[in-house]
Amino acid sequence: MTESPNLVAFTPERLEKVKEIIARYPEGRQKSALLPVLHVAQEQWGWLSSEVMDYVAGILSIEPVEVYEVATFYTMYHLDPVGKHVIEYCRTGPCCLMGGEDVYGHLKNKLGIDAGETTSDGLFTLKEVECLAACGWGPVFQIREQFYMNLTNDKVDQIIEELSK
Amino acid sequence: MARKILTEHINVPGIETFDVYRKQGGYTAVEKAIKTMTPEEVVEEAKKSGVRGRGGAGFPMGMKWGFLAKPEGVPRYLVCNADESEPGTFKDHHLMKCIPHLLIEGMIISSFALGAHKSFIYVRGELMYVIRILEKAIEEAKAQGFLGKNILGSGYDLELVVQPGGGAYICGEETALLESLEGKRGNPRNKPPFPAVKGLYQSPTVVNNVESISNMPWIINNGGDAYAAIGIGRSTGTKLISASGHIQKPGVYEIELGVSVDEFLNSDEYCGGIRKGHYLKALVAGGSSVPILPAHLITKTANGEDRLMSYESLSDGGFATGTMLGSGGFIVFDETACIVRNTWNFSRFYHHESCGQCSPCREGTGWMEKVLHRIEHGHGSMHDIDLLVDISKKIEGNTICPLGDAAAWPVASAIRHFRDEFVWHITHPHEATQPGAVYMGEMALV
Fold first, then answer.
1. How many other C-beta atoms are found inside a 10 Å radius of the C-beta of residue B300?
2. Residues 33..52 of B with a Cβ closer than 8 Å to A: which?
């Protein structure tokens, strides 16, 4: 395993985790570890720079392009720097039926940003996502692993104020 | 109360832990299968049960297992599809979160039946917290000797791996899921070869939905015949329904297949009726991909018979007057919902989620989204309605995987049943683009 020129490297704990992930697959099938390892990388760096993707390619003994094509296909991987909290807002039909569009408008006003943008203090990035499999509890958004459900304008205010502290 | 197979113990405090799950009779089916049955006998019970794929396709699970190729010296794989992403569907999310050991137990039994020694649960990446719940459950089961080497002293080895996705609806299609599991983009494969012959790592593979596999513990404990005795006709057993939209009680409900749509929609045991002061306008019964039905075709078929929650009754009348049970994503619309806006929303979804391999889907979903966008925003022409129908027909059946069909059906059915509403948007662009504007029939045109 070689260090990239920018000295991109997993922390020792994460490197252990990555090794454990690679060991899950049959011999020679370490490319299967790509999606989970990219999640670990994003956990460490917040987003996937080309240096990070090249580093992951080296760890998995695959070509960098194999990492790029995957990272650009799946919506969860951030290809640009993001704020401290990435709000992933569900814009799909069932959430819209429950007032999702109005609440989304309120959220955008509250943050003063549009989809794909980050607040000037670097606290929040707003992303639009498709159905999060929580339609019975819509409107819904997600921040990392946490689901925020049955959203209303008041609830959005509370959440944003809480996370701004 | 209707019989519960999957959710009987779901509200028992601590059911997510091994000890509580075990106290409720958990893992007895693994003991029974591994200690007293051959793999072939387990497959036979699955066949007898008649349980059909609960992800949406409805293909009999036992028959699918029967197709698995078994060449000497080649590993076989079982992959559980937990990529639940069909708009309106959230049952697998609920089941795995609340009672993870049910799926683990089902995976052990099913893997044993298929002769798999390494099995995967592919969970959509957005559910990372559920992945952690499953991994914890796997550790517990392993510590108790139900997973790992020499399970219960039988000589059977099994390792379970939970794989996160990266955010892509298309990976719910089984061959796209396998590509993704191999660390690639989720581009569906051409069939044949089918996964049963060449699947994961080019080895024979079975891909089954979470809910399908979770039925196995009950089937082994009670027998395939007992399972087949529940339900109606070829719709055997129970089904989890994800209910959302304009109803009193959204949530996940387990029904015996064959309960009437009227009862499911209106009784307090289930949805509790349309929200107060409103009335039913439309229903998407099986996830966003299935044809939308107008109010008069929901509780009765075109022949005036009671519509039932079953594969056959929901599809009664074909696409002209029927729909599909699909994934059981039951989305209810009251009179405040604009069908044009909803159809545009669904089209945007499919355009966003098309993997881009097949031009009819890649281009067609984009065209449909654009045309629907202009109708919804007051710039449509009458020609656009026929154009949408034309595009939908040119996508349907012309793509590698069913995403193309899934994109075409909602558009075609919305126009079939709600054409007036599209026409109104075109002839009354000013009225139709007011915030919250909804076509209420001829009376609203004054």
1. 15
2. none
E strand spans, chain A:
85-90, 124-129, 141-143, 146-148
A60, A97, A137: which to substitute to probe chain B, counting the most B Cβ within 10 Å?
Answer: A97
Q: Which amino acid is at B234?
A: R
- Whether a cis peptide bond, with omega within 30° of 0, leads into B193 is yes
Q: Which long-range contacts (CB under 8 A, 24 or more apart) does A56-59 make?
A: A58/A1, A58/A2, A58/A4, A59/A1, A59/A18, A59/A22
Interchain proximity B182–A97, CB inside 8 Å? no
Q: Are B176 and B122 in contact (CB under 8 A)?
A: no
Backbone angles phi, psi at B311, to 5 degrees: -60, -45
Are residues A63 and A29 in contact, defined by beta-carbon separation less than 8 angstroms? no
Instruction: State the amino acid at position B172 in one-letter form.
Output: G
Cβ neighbours around A80 below 10 Å, total: 10
B152-209 residue pLDDT tens = 999 999 999 999 999 999 999 999 999 999 999 999 999 999 999 999 999 999 999 9
> Which region among B196-205, B378-387, B434-443 has the lowest average model confidence (pLDDT)?
B434-443
Per-residue three-class SS string for chain B: CCCCCCCCCCCCCCCCCHHHHHHCCCCHHHHHHHHHCCHHHHHHHHHHHCCECCCCCCCEHHHHHHCCCCCCCCCCEEEEEECCCCCCCCHHHHHHHHCHHHHHHHHHHHHHHHCCCEEEEEECHHHHHHHHHHHHHHHHHHHCCCCECCHHHCCCCEEEEEEECCCCHHHHCHHHHHHHHCCCCCCCCCCCCCCCCCCHHHCCEEEEEHHHHHCHHHHHHHCHHHHHCCEECCEECEEEEEEEECECCCEEEEEECCCEHHHHHHCCCCCCCECCCCCEEEEECCCCCCCCEEHHHCCECCCCCECECCHHHHCCCHHHHCCCCCCCEEEEEECCCCHHHHHHHHHHHHHHHCCCCCHHHHHHHHHHHHHHHHHHCCCCCHHHHHHHHHHHHHHCCCCCCCHHHHHHHHHHHHHHHHHHHHHHHHHCHHHHCCCCCCCCCHHHHC
Helix (H/G/I), strand (E/B), else coil: A134: coil
Taking an 8 Å cut-off on Cβ atoms, the answer to whether B166 and A134 are in contact is no
Amino acid at B161: V
Closest of B347, B301, B352, B304 to residue B323, by C-alpha:
B301
Instruction: Tell me how far CA of residue B47 lies from CA of B32, B40, B231, in angstroms.
Output: 18, 10, 16
Cβ-nearest to B353 among A60, A130, A132: A130
Cα within 13 Å of Cα(A159), Cβ side: 24
Lookup: tokens for B409: 């059906």
Which chain B residues are Cβ-neighbours of A135 within 8 angstroms?
Answer: 87-90, 242, 244-245, 250, 329, 331
> Running DSSP on this structure, what letter comes out for residue A26?
P
Tens-digit pLDDT profile for residues B332-357: 999 999 999 999 999 999 999 999 99
Could you count the other beta carbons within 10 Å of the beta carbon of residue B235? 22
Separation between Cα atoms, residue B47 and residue A110, nearest integer Å: 55
pTM: 0.96
Q: What is the ipTM of this complex?
A: 0.95
Cis status of the peptide bond prior to B192, with omega within 30 of 0: yes
